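Subgroup meeting minutes
Present: P.N., E.W., G.H.
Scribe: E.W.

1. P.N. recapped why we're keeping a running log of single-chain structure predictions: easier to compare across weeks, and new members can see raw inputs and outputs side by side.
2. G.H. added today's entry (418 aa).
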Amino acid sequence: MKSRFSLIVLLSLLPFVTCAQFAFSVSERLRSLRMEVNGEWNAMPVVQLDGDDVISFSFDEMSHEYNRFIYRITHCNADWTPSDLHEIDYLEGFNNMPVEEWENSVATTQLYTHYTFSLPNENVSLLLSGNYKVEIFDDEDGGETPVAEFRFSIVDPRVRISATVSGDTDLSLNEDEQQLSFIVDCSGYSIASPSSDIIPVVYQNRRVDNAVMGIKPTYITGNSLEYLHNGKLIFNAGNEYRRFELTDPNSPSLNVEEVAVYGDEYHALLYVDKPRKNHSNYIDENGRYFVRTLEGYGSPIEADYVHVHFALDTPYTPDGDYYLFGDLTNNAISPLTRLDYDTEGGYYHTTMLLKLGLYNYMYVWMPHGGNALKTSAVEGDFYNTDNEYLIYIYHREFGARYDKLVGVHAINYRLEDN
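Output recorded in log:
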C-alpha cells in the first residue's frame, strides 16, 4: 500500500472547471461549497416565495487570513441566463454585500477559514419567483471575476405536479434505463398558451450534464399538461453511488483502507474500485456528501482536510477518459477529476483534497470527441437503481421579462414502490 501512496501524483495545482452546476468554485482556494435549506443538508435548493424558508451558504477559504468576500445576487431565466429584470424588480435592500460571518478552523492540519451567510437577511430579501445565482467575489482582487457561484430557486406554487418513474421504458423493458412521466395540473391558474408558455426542466440526481429542458406536453387535457412517452425523459439508470466515510483522520472507516500522515498532511487511501457488472444494493445519497467529524464538537471548523486517493482497476483505454463524479466534483468533469493511468501499477487514479465526512461518488467515461458522459463503462446501467428526479415548472407569459417558477416536485425511483 505504501507503493501506491508514492506513485500517486497530487493534482492540487490544476484549475477548477467552470460550469453550470448548483454550486461550484473557480478557485482551488475555495472548497466545500454548501447550500442548506432550513438547516437540512440534503434538501433541494428551493425555497418558497413569501415563506419562512432560509437558505444558507457556506464555503472554506484555505488559509487563516481574513478575505473580504462580496456576494452578488442575480435573477435568472429557466436556463440560468440572466433575466431582463432590474435589481429593483427582484431585490429589496442591498446587493453586493460582504460575507460578514467567518471563523478560523480549530486544531486542523489544513488551515482554512469558514464563511457563511443566509438569505433572506437584514440587508436583503427577494421579491420574485424563479432562478437566482449568488456570485462570490474576492474584494482583494478588485471584485471583477467571481471565484465561486451558488444557484438556487424560489417557487411560487401555482400548479400541482404528479410523477412516476418506471424501468419499463419505450425503448427497453427492465434493462438499463428509466422513464419519467409527469402531469402538471394547472387548475385555478390561468395560462394563455400552455404548450408554449410552460417550460419544464428535469434533473436526475441534480446533474446538469443530462438535464432535460423545454419539452412539449404529449397531451393537453382540460387543465392538465401530460408529459408521457417522451423519449427525452428516458434516462440512463446508472448504478448506486459508491460511498466512503472518513470522520476521524487517524482511523480508517467505510471503504478506507489506510490513513497516513505525510509531512503535516493527512492522506487516505480508499480500497481499489473495480468495474461493476451487477446492480449494487448499497443505500446511497444520490451523489451528495455530508461534512462531519468525530473530533471536538463536530463543528464545521473542526473538520480537517484529507488528501483522498481514488484508484480504479480497469485496463487502459486510449479512446477516452475516466472521471470522478458526484457532488464532491460539483457534478462536473475537469482536469482535477480526470483519472490518470499508472502503467507500473496497472490502474487509474486521482486525488482530491476533501473535508472529513460521508461522500458519494462514481466513475464516468467521456469518449474523445464525445459530448455525453457515460456511466455504463464502469458503473453499469440498471433499471432498478434508486435515482432522484427533480421537476421544475416555469411559466413565461407573453411579453414577460422573466420565467416564473410555479411548481417543483421531487420523486425517487425505488423498485419496491413500482
